[in-house]
Write a structure and sequence with these properties.
This protein has a 5-stranded antiparallel β-sheet. By secondary structure, it is of the alpha+beta class. The radius of gyration is 14 Å and the shape is globular.
Length: about 130
């Protein structure tokens, strides 16, 4: 059975995409900790980030850094935090989270709710900073 991320990659599920290459995809987290919370994933389905082949692993971090710079330029924040948890979806991914304080990165915090229009506007703002 495919994971939710595999289904997003295949186009079976919608996502607010912000960046895409042949090997990687970045999209907004639909249950964000903060505005602009983005996920960077390899398109290849690998459960655990440490099991990625070296080239794919390094490429994912370079892709995440490029996306993070765009997120930081598009979303007011103090810093960008990165998190790799790996328990939520069995597909390697990096959380890119705009933060103002350390508390913003607490995954036990209630998730913020955004309208489809807000998600779309954030995704477009990040995309504009990538160009």
């Amino acid at each position: 059975m495919s994971t939710v991320f595999e289904r997003i990659v295949k186009g079976e599920l919608p996502a607010y995409k912000v960046a895409e290459t042949d090997d990687y995809l970045a999209f907004l987290d639909i249950r964000p900790l903060t505005r602009g919370h983005t996920l960077a994933i390899p398109k290849k389905a690998v459960d655990y980030i440490l099991d990625l082949e070296e080239e794919l692993y390094v490429g994912l971090w370079l892709f995440a850094r490029e996306v993070a710079r765009a997120v930081q330029a598009a979303v007011p924040c103090e810093r960008i935090a990165f998190a790799v948890v790996g328990l939520e979806v069995p597909h390697a991914h990096i959380h890119i989270v705009p933060i103002r304080t350390m508390a913003d990165l607490n995954f036990q915090n209630p998730r913020i709710e955004l309208s489809p229009e807000e998600f779309k506007a954030i995704a477009e703002a990040i995309q504009a900073k990538l160009r």
